[in-house]
Prior knowledge:
The chain is α/β, with parallel strands linked by helices.
Amino acid sequence: MRIAFIVNRFPLLSETFILNQIVGCIDRGHEVDIYGIKPADLSKLHPDVIQYNLLERTHYRDRIPQNRVKEIAKGIKLVLTDGFKNPAVAWRSLNPSKYREHPELLSLIYATMPSLGKPPYDIIHCQFGNLGLLGMALRDIGAIQGKLITTFRGNDISEYVRQHGEHVYDQLFQKGDFFLTNCDFFRNRLLKLGCDPEKVLVHRSGIDCDRFFFQPRSLSPGEQVRIVTTGRLVEKKGIEYVVRAIAKLSKTHPNIKYDVIGDGPLRESLQQLIQDLNVSKFVELLGWKQERELIEILDRSHIMVAPSISSRNGDQDAPVNVLKEAMAMGLPVIGTQHGGIPELIEDGKSGFLVAERDVDSLADRLEFLVTHPDQWIEMGKAGRAYVETHYNKETLNDRLVEIYQSVKSTSP
């Protein structure tokens, strides 16, 4: 099959779930093109990006000028220089009036140019709902051809809907061929927005279980208990509440260390909170790490915390990918009763679930794990078994190809 992936920033270290699907299709003998809105940080590349030469398969949208006059002038220039590949499509891309309810589609010409002249695809897979809208528009004007599948993953089914209204996906639900969500929680939300239940399945985001080796967790005499969280430093990740829980716990258990892997707009405020709570020797913000570095940190850690919350702008999380990786490596985990996380953690078996923003409960469950290292091995085994059964990327990629083949064979 010929498969086009429409993505946002690529290749993004925090979105290995998309990378896993792209590589899975290539491994299974399919031809893949990637259409990205803009490049991510190219100084830190996942090994698979290099091994599979994915940047050579990636076509980026031209940068849109901030000034409206310059935006129009550059758009006209693009038509004059590249529009000859398909003049009719180029002309249609300049008149996106029917997409006025979707402001991001008004500069459709910029997204159109990379796909001009490409042969039809069997499958166009849009990663995130807002990119499904883009894929729909590109297909409407004839810039790209193929069956349209959209995966909803979190922000697109929470914050984006709050911003643009509950009818934002009405056209996509009518014109799209099939839809996927990465958890039951988001599938139910999609149904409430009006998606046909016959056209939507849960397809979970997998991980490479062979890359994350299981290691029974134990504590040597005098060793620090190392606690870790990974994620963007944004409100919905809830990291401030773990920092506060660590501040409480450190008063009676000074042998703890909390590492936060990731970066983002809240780094400065989190650093200030760490100083205000006087926990600088217990909490460290490590910034982004490549996968090899991440694995090394997880390897020497004992407990993983995923404290996600519903942010004020409505953004929510699916089951967190790095949480799966930590469970595969044998770490007991603590997560929140939030989004799709309860679909991943078996409360009391592989770890614990607590309410969002509940500092006292976080501190209590952390204290239990800190003082009961004898429980770590059994919890780690349970987590590994659950991830292997439900989130193995090879099994899930086989299933994804089956879905593609099924959608491809359906009548228009």
